[in-house]
Amino acid sequence: MKILAALDQTPYAEFVLTKAIKTARQQNAKLDILVVAGDFSDAGDSCGWESINGKLLEAATAAAKAYRQKALAQGIQAKIRVMQGTSPADVIVKYQQAEDLDLIVIGRRSHKGQDPFPIGPVAQRVAAHATCTVMVVR
To answer: What structural domains does the chain harbor?
Structure first.
């Protein structure tokens, strides 16, 4: 079995990672960690998007390395992958399909707030379009 932990850079991501590690251990599975950095290249040409995209990629890479260290500390070897894209859901689903993964573990929302919807748009799109099981962590 191959599991993907699709993580962002919020404090809640560590909780999602813990669930993915626990599941990988229970299933004796391989674990991939994917962090998607935003890509604002198409947002306009007057703000220096290349510099901003570079900083987003650096931050995502640092987060992915920290997540891998947390997995290692719990006895799980994890492959990390950092990708950029305008739609995190599309990046996650394409990665899942390209790597033929069996399970995606993803958080239900990346931000706090009084929102009447129980699941965020990224988790919704991943659950709707992935070709594997999706575990949405509350």
So the answer is: 2-137 (3.40.50.620)
